Predict the structure of Cuticle protein CPCFC domain-containing protein.
Amino acid sequence: MHQSHLIVERIYNMYAKLFIVCALAVVALAREYPAGVHPAICPNYPFCDPTTLARFTPDGQPIPEWVYNPAILPVAPADPHAAAAREYPAGVNPATCPNYPYCW
């Protein structure tokens, strides 16, 4: 019974040492990313493309394209319930024919 106890103790010691070595390896190989750099955006930090970093938030969320190019935003009228301004052809006075093209 004494000998089986020693074998079990050696196995536990072996697993404890293996666990410690693995834990040290994880700590030694862990990368620390600076603020504003998300590991999913720049996995091989410090070799990151600056434009890629500029397109994402520090949390790794993409920034919409319209932030960089406001020209692609759909232009909405100031009042969505307001009617669109009418266009009159040359020679037609809007005061004399407010219901163009139905002028009498």
Q: What stands out?
A: The CA atoms of residues 33 and 45 lie 7 Å apart. Residues 2-29 form the longest helix (28 residues). The radius of gyration is 35 Å.
